[in-house]
User: What shape does this take?
Amino acid sequence: MQRPVQMREHFPDGTPIGPWFYDDSVPTLEQLGRPYRVTDYGVLDDGRLHTAELQALIDRIAAEGGGVMVVPAGVYLTGSLFFKQGVSLYLGEGAMLRGSDDIADYPLLPTRIEGESCPYFAALINADGLDGFTICGPGAIDGNGLRAWRAFWLRRQWNPACTNKDEQRPRLVYLSHCSNVLVAGVRMQNSHFWTNHLYKCDHVRYLNCRVFSPAEPVKAPSTDAIDLDVCTDVLIKGCRFEVNDDAVVLKGGKGPWADTLPENGANERILIEDCSYGFCHGCLTFGSECVHSRNVLLRRVTVDASLNFLWFKMRPDTPQLYEYVAVENAKGTVDHFFNVSGWTQFFDAKGRADIPVSRAEQVALRRCDFTCGTCFDMPGGGRDYHFDGLTLEEVCVRASEGLELPGCVQNVTQKNVSVTRL
Assistant: This one.
């Protein structure tokens, strides 16, 4: 059921939050169209790989005019699946679609990864150019990533400079060039690599999802919960994030000429609300692969144990602009409350000497209450990055260090701000 529109609500730059953002309705199984139960088409809970049967069923549903692929209770093993127009996915109570742990079951193809367009491996769930794609239901999508995590850390021991892509591993969900996407109610867990990656998508809703990957006993490296990569009009509501990397991440390209390349671009009108966070590296992270993000609103969230609450990664090899960002009504416990830092991982200026300094502008934090190790963690500034326009209102933080806002921030407004030492 669509909620009443609050006409006076706005994004940080004053743009009204449109009616689309107030529709948090989720269709019933019956409303998704003709159901196709996977167990009626040769897919069994038997520990065998059923990629071919599941892909044949997706193709059949599309050819017959559309409908919903229904996964009933049980565990069903598969490699990469490629959804088509008019085909939705429903995961029933007790259902688990589990990914293969063999990279050979994920084809190599042209894709988008880490801010670049290049050949890489397909995800477990793939959708490209679809309008109205839906994943919902109380069941789970499980990446089955333990084998890849162990291999990654073993490779790091052998070569500490190895990159994320050196250990070949798939993402869990990759959506590209899609519109009117709904992901609701499902549990997404144990991804080999990024959990959800959206590239050049618009009008996307993630509602009441649970995204999990472990930080112990084996860390699940780079298992970001939701990576938004050149996306517009996104609602993330009522979700629970607990992953061994960042929760919601704004991406969009990297490199010394990233802002001029047509495959890159801005994230705009992103609303994250009513979410909760367990352990993660950052609750809301800008970068490191991001050229422009604008009108991002995070509100009504609680944090149990994040390393960073709000994190701006400033790449010295990429022109970046993060602007009109607001946080409202947030509380919790973190290591770092407000982190702005240079980010040199995999630095490559490619010979360009005149890269513009990265910038953050017009950031506001209102009605925040946190206990943390460091309140303001902002090394550098000046030559490393520019920060212009910070508003702090009704902010109460108890911290061990970093109690003073550094002088590199220009045009600061403070009202009812209390930062006290633990």
Summary: The helical segments are 51-63, 146-158.
